[in-house]
Amino acid sequence: MKILLVEDEKKVAKFIQQGLEEEKFAVTVAHDGEQGLKQALVGNFDLIILDILLPQKDGITVLKELRGKKFNIPVIMLTAKSATEDKVEGLDSGADDYLTKPFAFAELLARVRSLLRRGAKEKSTILKVADLHLDIVSHKAKRGDRMIELTGKEYALLEYFMRNVNRTLTRTIISEHIWNYNFDTGTNVIDVYINHLRSKIDDGFEKKLISTVRGVGYVMKDE
Ligand code: CA
Fold first, then answer.
1. Taking the model in full, what pTM does it have?
2. Structural domains present in the chain
3. CA 80/CA 148 separation, integer angstroms
């Protein structure tokens, strides 16, 4: 999952970015409102964490412009302590949630997960494709009765495939979502990771869930 963080205080931004990356999110940081808005419009993010007090353009203006352009991506606003008016204005402008600084990272993470779940219209924390189950909280995967151990990147890849079932994912899209940048077309990093993942979830099973779309990328199929 791809998150845009718009926060001008570098220390705070770094702290949030690190925490989210440890939880396998791909994080892009913008340090002012102008950049944040630009990124938000082109970056194909799953969620935005938006500070209110920002240089160039404040968070509420950024949010209003996004909503004005029909960008319905979930937004969590960060407000300074006790700025109740900011909260009200943020929510009125289309924020989905807000958090008052200073906050515990665990609290932010809980809000992020809850919004992403809501966005995906899931009530459960388990993603299911055929007989493959993935718990997005514990990061445990199971195919049939077999538990599958995943590395961090494999988990991120698998979650991305399962959220985009039956959709062909190009190498470019995969690299942007999972690694947050494009690999040179000459490298086979993505293929290596996907082959590891495939052998973990498909070896020994008659039905193969991930297949190659030649010249394009990969697809996970549930039928
Ligand atoms: Ca700020």
1. 0.56
2. 2-119 (3.40.50.2300), 126-220 (1.10.10.10)
3. 43
